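User: Quick sanity check before I run a bigger batch. Here is a single chain. Can you write out its predicted 3D structure?
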Amino acid sequence: MHQYGANWMNPMASVAPLPVLEALTTAVLVIDTDSLVCYLNPATEALLEISAQRAHGQPLGELLPMGATLQAALLAAVEGSSTTLREIALERPGSETPLLLDCTVAPFTTWSGNGLVVVELARVDQLMRITREAWLQERQDALHEIVRALAHEIKNPLGGLRGAAQLLDRELPRRELREYTRIITHEADRLGGLVDRMTGSFRVLGREPFNLHAVLEHVRKLTLVEIPEGLVFERDYDPSIPELTGDREQMVQAVLNIVRNAVQAMAGRGVIALRTRVRHQFTLHNRRHRLAVEVWITDDGPGIDPAMIEKVFFPMVTGRADGTGLGLAIAQEAVNRHGGTIECVSRPGKTRFTLYLPVEGDA
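Assistant: Done. Predicted structure follows.
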């Protein structure tokens, strides 16, 4: 079967033109009767992080180390039967999280009579992520609408309250009485500032090119100025990441809020790791992007209470007595407005916030 080369067009020409397979977002591999790879489409290259040229001629078991279950499915396909393996965990070198896949193995015969096997891989974890993302987005959108309406209703009487306190301050004859009106004015200003922070991320979004690594470095340096001792940053940046388009200042604020949240969780002492990677053929908000950027912000703090993990991005939800519960909500709103999303996983000793951002023009 190797005479067709890495592109492997002829066996499929009479059934499905190769450009059709090339355009699929589903990962497809074609295997010969010796269980060697004849062809894989770009979606498979992105999923398994291997080029078609390198994979061509390799045993399938080396690309998909699924053990005896895969071998049994291949034997069944050679005998003419199709098999679907559900939720198979596939470990990846250098990755902490395995891929969760549905794997369908089916026989295929070309017009020339060649017997082949088609392997189709579908990411279950990605589908679960998209479904969960949509569910959370609906809840958060509804909550944000409530917050905006509430902020509007608070600010209107707040202005009148502050004005009345200032007028009363001028009329009171005794200095000790004016101290009370100043407390009213101060608290009104504080409440107004809180409302502004709740609604501050809704300003017009800038649309200028910016360097993501420059944003991360700005946040790192700013944090080290605030916490000069006891805090260590580890960096692992992908130099191939192109410039993004959006509002640099809002992105700085989003990353800063996440990093400050980590610093507070670690009480100012510990390690924060910043990592960036390019993701290919990635879906965000039901839109497929040829290129997306993945940012990891990881800390070695005590972790987030499991009861709080689903609520960390909701406004006014916080695990600290002195917290406002706005930092992560503002961060998520800013990332969402850039077409991206944030995820969080946590256990004692390791909390990771993952930002996914689309590269402009690659949808």
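The chain has a mean pLDDT of 80.

User: Great, the batch can go ahead then.
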